[in-house]
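Regression test attached.
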Amino acid sequence: MLYYIGKRLLSMLPLLFGITLICFAVIQLSPGDPVTLGTSLNQEADADAHQKLREAYGLNKPLHEQYLTWLKGLIQLDFGTSFAPDNRPVIDKITESLPVTLWMNIIGLFFVFLIAIPLGVMSAKYQDSFFDKTSTVILFIAFAAPSFWVALMGMIYFGLHLEWLPISGISTYGSESWPLHERILDWAKHLILPIGIGVLGSIAGMSRYMRSSMLEVIRQDYITTAKSKGLTNTKVFYKHGLRNALLPVITILGLSIPGLIGGSVIFESMFSIPGMGRLFFDAVMMRDYPVIMGILTIGALLTLIGNLLADVAYSFADPRIRFGGQKNA
Amino acid sequence: MPKKNKFMYIGLTLVLCMAFGALFAPILTPYSPTELDLNNILSAPSVLHPLGTDQLGRDVLSRLLYGARVSLLVGFIAVGISAAIGIFLGAVSAFYGGRVDQFIMRFLDVMLCFPSFFLILAVIAFLEPSLVNIMVVIGLTSWMGITRLLRAEFLKLKEQDFILAAKAQGLKDSTIIWRYLLPNAMAPVLVNMTLSVAAAILIESGLSFLGIGVQAPNPSWGNMLTDGKENIEIAWWLALYPGLAILITVLGYNLLGEGLRDKLDPRLRK
C-alpha cells in the first residue's frame, strides 16, 4: 500500500513542474502589463516612473530569472505580494478565502452523493419505468440549465419575491456576536441558494453516471452466477451490483474537482461570497498577476491532491489496482 | 430501442430550430438587436414585443435571435479548434507511441489539472475580451477529451489485420492515418464533439455574463443575462428568456450527442 502511494507521489513531480510552467507561461504570453495598467489613469507617470515600478516588481529581469524567483518563492509557499492597493501577501489572501470555497464544495458534494446515488440506483433498478423516464427527462433539463441563470431565477423568486432567503454574502453583518445556534441558522440561510443551485448540475451528471454504471454491472457474468446460485434479486442487486457500480464513482469524484473549483467563480461573484473564486475574479479584473498565478497553482495542486486521494481510495476499494497495477504504471 | 431514438430526434429538432432562428434572424424579427428605442424602455412582453424590451428599449426577441448566432458560432468554432488539436495529438500519440506518446500524455495530464474556467478567465482577461479570443481560448483548453478518445480508438485499431496489411504494403504513415484509421475511429469523437458544442456554449455564456465575453452592444445570451441581473427587481423577462434559450440549445446538443452515442455504441445494444 505504502509502495503504491509512494509511486503515485513520485509520478506527481513532473506534473507539478508542468503546472508551474503553464501558470507562468499564461501570464507571460499575455500582452498586458500591470505597470502600464496601474498607471494608465495617472498622467504624471512617465517612462522613468514605469521603469522604477518594473524594477520594484522585478519585471525588468529576463524571463527565466523571473520564473526561477517565482518558483523559489513557491516552494516556500511565498507567492509574492498582491498588486492590489492593500499590498498583502498572496498566500494570506488565499488561505483566507480557500476554506470558504472548500467547505462549500464539501457540503455540496455530500448532498450530491446523498441524492444522486439513490436516484441513479432506482433508475437502473426500475429501468424504463415511469420513474426512470420522468427522472431522466428532469435530469437532462437540470444538466443543461446554466447554473448562473438558475441562481438568478432563485434570487428573484426566493430572495426578492418571497423574501425568504438572503441573496448576498455568507452571514448577516454583525452576526459574530449572536449565539451559536442562531449563527448556524444564519449561515444555512445564506448558503441554501448558492449550494443548492450549485449542486444541481452535479446531481444530474452523477445520477446519470450511477445509472449507467449500475446497468453495466448487472450485465456482468458474476451477477448471472450470483442469481443462478439462487440468491434473491434484491440481494444480488445491492450486495453484488451496487458495490461494484460504486467503484467508478470514486474516480469521478476526483475528476470533478477542477470543475467544482472553476464553477465557484461565477457563483461566488453572484452571491458575493468571499471565497477563492471571487478572489480570482477580482484579481483577473485588476490584472493582479501574483494572485492569479498563486490561485492557478493552488487550484491545480488541489486537483492533483484530489486525484491522488481518489486513486488511493480506489485502491483500497479494489484490490486489483493495488496488486496488479505494477505493469501498466 | 425506440425510446432512445425519440430523445435523439427531440434533440435534433431543438438544434435545428435554434439554427433556423439564428440563420433567419433578420427575416423573423422587424427590430434591430442594437437599435435603441428610449420611448419603450423595459416594456413588458406584448404583441409588439413578444418578449418585452430591455433597459435601452431594445427588442428582447431580436437580441435573442442574434445572440443565437454568437452562441452557435462560438460553439462550432471552439469545438472545431479543439477537435483539430485533439485529433492531431491523439493520432500522433497513438500512431508513433514511445517518447512522443509519453510527452503528449504528460502534457495532457498537466492540462487536466487546471480548473479550465480559471485558465480561460485568466487568458481572456489578459488578451482583451473579443469573440475570436473566446473561441480560440475555449478551443485551446478543451482538446483533452478528444485526444484521449482518439488515442484509445487508434490503439485498438492499430493491431487489426487491415492496418497491418496496409503497413505491409508500405503505405505512407499519413495515408494509413487518414484513409484507414481516422474514418474507423471517428464515431466516438463525433459524439464527444456534439456534447462539446453544448459545453462551449455554456462557457461562452458564463464569460459574457461575467462581462469578459461578448461585449455590449453586441447581443449574447450571457450579456443579456447581465442586463437581466441589473434589472432583476423590475423586469423578470430580461432574466428569464436568455436563460431559457441557453437551456434549450444545450439540451438539444446533449440529447443529440447522447442519442448518437447509444446508436453508435454496440455494447449498450441488447
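Expected vs. actual: identical. Residues 3-20+75-268 of chain B form a domain with the MetI-like fold fold (CATH 1.10.3720.10).
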